[in-house]
Amino acid sequence: MMSDVELSNYFPVHGDRLRRRQYLNDSRSVVDNRNKLLKTLHEKMEQAKHRGKTDKNYSSSDEESSNMRRHYGNKNALKGSRIIEIGWVHKTHQRVKQVRSKTGGGTRKFPMDKNSKKEDILREAKLLFFPDGNSPKGKISDMDFDI
User: Fold this and answer.
1) Cα dist. 41→32, 49, 55, 91, 129 in Å?
2) Burial of residue 6 (number of CB atoms within 10 Å: 0-12, 13-18, 19+)
3) Which of 31, 7, 33 is nearest to 18 (CA)?
4) Which of 12, 50, 90, 133 has the highest count of CB atoms within 10 angstroms of its CB?
């Protein structure tokens, strides 16, 4: 590191020299912090890897236990269903408008199997928005449906 006298040849104002020194010290600390964070992350990944190998997942098949290890910490990945939120957008001629709850629409949440197809979701939505095949906007047979 250069002395104050040597730096005065390049930066005649004392405040400029102090700012340059502070900048260099800060940039070094940023690199040090980055290295510390990377080291901590690497250690955590190693711990998780070893933890996955030592945990026994009450399953008899190797495939299920490897699946559990792969999704370690991701509990939603292990579930067989998910919550679907669906709403009703009604199109008439050139107008597109969301149907509000007061008129039989709104958004609804319901559980669906992860393997559900578009047709399954449409069937469930028709049951929610068209009980008995009717709604305030008309009959189910008069409507076109899409997701």
Assistant:
1) 14, 12, 21, 51, 48
2) exposed
3) 7
4) 90
Predicted structure pTM score? 0.45
What's the CA gap between 111 and 96, in Å, rounded?
A: 27
Angstrom distance (rounded) from CA 84 to CA 31: 44
Other Cβ atoms closer than 10 A to 89: 10
Between 95 and 66, residue with greater pLDDT: 95
**Which tens digits make up the pLDDT trace of 83-134?**
888 887 888 888 888 787 777 777 888 888 988 898 998 888 888 888 888 8
Q: What are phi and psi of 96, to 5 degrees?
A: -120, 125
